Amino acid sequence: MMIKTLSRDGDHPGERRLCPCGDDQCYICIDGDDDHSFFEHIGSGDPNCLVGGTLVPPDITTAVPPPYIGQAFQSDEEALEYYSNFAKNNGFSVRRERSKGNPEHPMGVYKRELVCHRAGPPLPRKTDDVKRQRNRKASRCKCEAQMVIKKNASAGVTRWVVVNFSNVHNHELLESTEVRYPSPYRNISAVDRERILALAKSGCTESLILRALEMEKGVSPGQLAFGERDVKTFLQALKSINRESEGSELLKVCRVMKEKNPDFRYEFQLDENNKLEHVAWSYASSIRAFKVFGDVVVFDTTFHLNAYDRPVGVWFGIDNYGHTLFFCCVILLDDKLESFAWSLQAFLRLMDGKLPQTIMTDLDMGLKDAVVAYLPDVKHAFCIWHVMSKLSSWFSALLGSEFERFRSEFQRINDSETIEEFEHQWANMVVDFSFGADKHVSLLYSHRFNWALPYLQGWFFGGLLKVCQVLSIQSFFKGFLNSQTRLKDFIEQVGVAVDFQNQAGEEATTQQNQQITKLRTCMPIEEHASTILTHYAFDMFQKEIMASTLFAVYETARENYLVRHHLKSDGGHFVSCIPSDEDVHCSCKGFETTGILCRHALRVLSLKNCFFIPEKYLLTRWRQESSLFPECSSQKYRSQALRSLASILIQESAITKDRFDYVEWHLSRLLNHVKDMPGMDVAASNVELNSCFDDVVDIVTAPSVTRGRPRKVKQVLKAAKDSHTSC
User: Where is the SWIM-type domain positioned along the sequence (predicted)?
Assistant: First the structure.
C-alpha cells in the first residue's frame, strides 16, 4: 500500500520519500510548508497567490497589494517573486539592478535593488552604423519605480525587508497580457522538480508530466506557475550539468580554502575512475566548538541536492547559551549503509577522533545500522521532531478527524515519566484508535528504545529531547542555500552561512550577558546558580527549582527519600542524598540527561539545608566561562559588545523624552572625549590578526550638538554641586 498524504492545505502532495518501514511501495510525504519550504523560494508573501502550495500567475488570483516599507520575506527570491506579481498586475516588468555584498562578505549578498524594466538611461547602440540599427524607441527611460530590499538578521533568523518602495512611473503602463512573463513566474518549486524528475525517469514526456502535475494538484489545465516549455527547459538544464567536472571543481574549492586557511579540514573519497563519491569538511571554529560542546550531536540527513541526486548531511550541536553550532558537513553519493559509514568515520577523523556521548538522527534504518556498527560506544537516538513529522503521512488518512487527538496522545505518552507508564498507555492507545497490527505502529513500538523519553533517561542530551528544540539543515541554512545552489558553490555558501550564524550567536551571547537575572524564589541555592550558569542553563535550572516546591518528601531509610507530587497518592521518585560526600542521586536520572539537577533532588537538598550547589553538579558545558565568545581585547569583540550595548541603550532611551535628552547629551560628550583619545592600542599583542570574517558596521555620522545641557541634566548637576558645597 502506498500512502499518499495531502499537505495541510489539502491541495497537493508534498515531497515523497521511501518510508523507513522498508516497504518499497510505501512513501512518506514531507510538507513543503514545513521542513523544506525555504529551499523552494516559492512564497509570495500573499496567501492568495498560492494554489496547492504552488505559485500561480496573478491573473488567476486576486490582485497583489503593493509592497510596503517594513514588509519581510524569507528570501530575496521570494521578494522578487512578490514584486514581479505586483508588476504584472500593474503593467510593467521587473529586473534586478544593483546589489551589495559578495560570497566573501559575512552576510553574502545583503542588499538588492529591484527596478522597473524601463529604469536607467537608454542603452548605447551596439554599432555606430545607423543603417544597421532598427529605428525603435529606447526601452529604458530613467523610470524611478523600484523596490529595495535588505537582509536583516535577528536572533539568528534571516529575513529580507523592504527598505524603500516607489511606484511612480514616467512612461505608459501596459496591459497585463502585454507584460513579458519574466523568469520568476516560471520558477519550479523543489517539490515539483523532484516529481518532474521521477516522472521523467519513468519515461513520461513533457506534456504527460504537466498533465500529471495538474491532476495531482487538482488545478485546471494552464493554471500551474509553469508550462510544458518550462518543464523541457528544466530537464535540459539538468542534462547540461556535468556532474563529473563539478566534482573536481568542488575539490578544487577545498584545496583553495585549505591554502587560504590551513585550519580548514576536508576529506573525500574517489571511485575506481577517480570520480568524486563523498566529501566532508569542517572549519577551524567548528572543530574548536566540538571540543567543548561535542558531547551531543545531531546528524541531519534530510536534505537532498535534487539536481545531483545526492544526500547532504550536517552535524550540529548546542552550546551553553542554547545556540546552534555547526560541526561538519558531508555530501554523499547515496543514502546506503556504506555511504553513511564513510561519513561517520570521516567525521571522527576531522574531529581528531573525539567521540560524542550521544548522536541523534532521523528515523532512518540504514543510518541506524551504520551508527551501531561504527560507533558502538555512542548512544543513538531518533530526533523526536523527525518522528513527529512522519505521523501525518502514516496516520492522517487512516484516522481522519481523530488524527489531532492521536497526535496529542502520542506526545503525552512520549513524555511519560516511567517505562511502566509508557507501556501501559501505549497499549491503551493501540486499542483506543483500533490500530491492530498497523505496520507503522509496530515500527514505532519496535524502535521505542531510540525515541521514547522514558527509555532515553540517563543518557546526556543537553535539553534536545523536547520537540521545541529543533536542530536542522533547514533552520540553520535558511536564506543561504536553495535548490539552485550548484555543487561547486556549496562549500562556499555553507561557509558564509556558518560565519553569519557565528556572528549572530556572538551577538546574542553578548546581549544575554547584559541582561539582569531575575530570581523567582528566596532560596540561596538559586542565587548561587545564577552566578555560575548561563542564562539558557539557568532557565532550565529555575524551572526545576520552582517545580520542586510542589513535591512532598518522605524519608524511607537513612539518607534515602521518596519524592512525590503533593496531589498524588502513589508513585514518585527515589532520591539518595549524602551531604558529607556532596552526593545526590535521583531515580528519574534528570541530571544525567540534561546536566541540570532535577526538581526531586533539589527538593531534598533544600530540606538538608544545602545553600550551594555541589561543584560536580555544575557542569563545565553550562558555565558562563565556557562561552565560545569569551571577553577579550580584540577589535572584533569590542565592536560586537558595543553594538549590543548600543542596541539596548537605544531601546531604553527612546521610551520617554527625558530619557532621550539625557542619553543624547551624554553620548555627545562621550563621542567628543573618545575622539580625543589615542587611535591605537598600546599593547599591539592584543590585536587579533585572524578572524572568520570581517565585521561590517553601518556608520551614521553623528549630528553636531549645538544646544546646551538638557534641563533635567542641569538640575541633577546643580543638586550634586550644592550637595558637594554643603559638605
Answer: 574-609
For residue 208, CA distances in Å to 198, 221, 222, 229, 236 come to 12, 12, 13, 12, 16
Q: Could you report the per-residue pLDDT of 211-244, keeping only the tens digit for each?
A: 888 888 888 887 777 778 778 777 776 665 666 6
Strand ranges of the sheet holding 560-565, from the earlier edge strand across to the other edge: 551-557, 560-565, 573-578, 583-586
- Under DSSP, the state recorded for 437 is T
Report which DSSP code applies to 656: S
Write the CB contacts of 179 (distance below 8 Å, at least 6 apart in sequence): 87, 88, 91, 92, 93
Spatial CA neighbour of 477 closest among 463, 495, 465, 462: 495
Quickly tell me which residue has 527519600 as its cell. Answer: 561
Q: How confident is the model at residue 64 (pLDDT cuts 50, 70, 90)?
A: confident
Lookup result for grid cell 561543584? 615
Which residue type occupies 529? A
Distance CA 95, CA 184 (A): 10
Please write the tens of the pLDDT for every residue from 643-688: 667 767 787 788 888 888 898 888 888 888 888 888 765 444 443 3
pLDDT tens column, 1-54: 334 333 333 333 345 667 887 776 676 765 443 333 333 332 333 322 332 233
d(CA 541, CA 319): 16
pLDDT band at 704 (very low <50, low <70, confident <90, very high): very low
SS3 562: strand
Answer whether 425's CB lies under 8 Å from 416's CB: yes
pLDDT for the residue numbered 515? 77
What are the CA-CA distances from residue 622 to residues 33, 525, 627 (Å)? Answer: 34, 16, 9
- DSSP for 323-374 reads -EEEEEEEE-S-SSHHHHHHHHHHHHHHTTTPPPSEEEE-S-HHHHHHHHHH
Neighbours of 337 (CB within 10 A): 16
CA distances for 648 relative to 161, 247, 509, 514, 533, angstroms: 22, 47, 14, 9, 22
Q: How far apart are the first and last CA of the chain?
A: 92
Which three three-digit cell numbers place residue 335? Answer: 543514502
Q: Are 43 and 74 in contact (CB under 8 A)?
A: yes
Which residue from 114, 117, 97 is spatially nearest to 173, judged by alpha carbons? 117
User: What length is written for the chain?
Assistant: 727
DSSP string of 390-409, one letter each residue = HHHHHHHHHHGGGHHHHHHH
Q: How many helices (H) and strands (E) does the chain have?
A: 23, 20
| Residue 186 near residue 225, CB atoms below 8 Å | yes
Report the alpha-carbon distance of residue 304 to residue 293 in Å, rounded: 27
Half-sphere exposure of 551 (CA within 13 A, CB side): 27
Beta bridge mates, 576:
560, 585
Provide Rg for the chain, Cα atoms.
30
Show me where the domains of the chain are located. Answer: 63-120+139-182, 190-239, 243-500, 524-622, 634-667
User: Hey, what's the cell of 226?
Assistant: 509553469
Phi, psi for residue 686 in degrees, rounded to 5: -80, -10
How many other CB atoms sit within 10 Å of the CB of residue 514? 12
More confident residue, 372 or 397: 372
pLDDT in tens, 316-329: 999 999 888 999 99
C-alpha to C-alpha distance for 17 and 15, rounded to whole angstroms? 7
What pLDDT sits at residue 651?
Answer: 73
What is the C-alpha to C-alpha distance for residues 512 and 156, in angstroms, rounded to an integer?
14
DSSP reduced 3-state for 322: coil
User: What pLDDT digit, counting tens, does each position of 332-355 carry?
Assistant: 998 899 999 999 999 999 999 999
Asked whether the beta carbons of 323 and 509 are under 8 A apart, the reply is yes
Contact between 718 and 681 under an 8 Å Cβ cutoff? The reply is no
